[in-house]
Amino acid sequence: MKHVSCAIAALAALGLSAQALATTVDFGAIDPGDSEGASVFYGAMGAAIDDTWSFTLTSDSQAALIFDSADLSGFYGIADFLVSAAGMAFDYNATDNTYTFTGLLPAGDYTIDVSGVTNGLLGGQYDVSVGALAPAPVPLPAPLALLASGLFAIGAIRRRRAEKT
Asked: pLDDT (tens digit, 9 = 90+) per residue, 117-156?
């Protein structure tokens, strides 16, 4: 009986101790026009999160990344939610506990780190979305076209004057 009570106490101690959770997700190759998404749910309060997300852009792209921590009235939440990556400046919205990035990214491999501690009674959850579009072509500015037509007109006037004399 003594061994059973020791085993129960050990299991209870393990259940109450903080857990460290690490998830690695690789979205693989993302072409312009593609998007990927996933959700991560941790079912324990007080669990430390140390996740890594990665993807490869196959060509220069206008990219959008969203990391959204669900905060559902104390049931699910993540405290100290932090998203970081080399070469990307994420915007943080404290009201929604959300990190976003939009901008032009060159083709290549990207790794994003996510950390925090679950603080909801049922743990914590966050959603990830990554999308890419081909960069828009740079349009010829209207003033440049106006300048070219003006120079053409000046050249035509000079030619006429030269022909009259």
From this structure: 999 998 999 999 999 988 767 666 667 677 777 777 777 7
pTM of the model: 0.70
Domain map (residue ranges) of the chain: 19-133
pLDDT per residue as tens digits for the range 49-74: 999 999 999 999 999 999 999 887 77
Topology (CATH level 3) of domain 19-133: Jelly Rolls (2.60.120)
Phi and psi angles of residue 5, each rounded to the nearest 5 degrees, phi first: -65, -35
SS (H, E, C) the chain: CHHHHHHHHHHHHHHHCCCEECCEEEEEEECCCCEEEEEEEECCCCCEEEEEEEEEECCCEEEEEEEEEECECCCECEEEEEEEECCECCEEECCCCEEEEEEEECCEEEEEEEEEEECECCEEEEEEEEEEECCCCCCCCHHHHHHHHHHHHHHHHHHHHHHHC
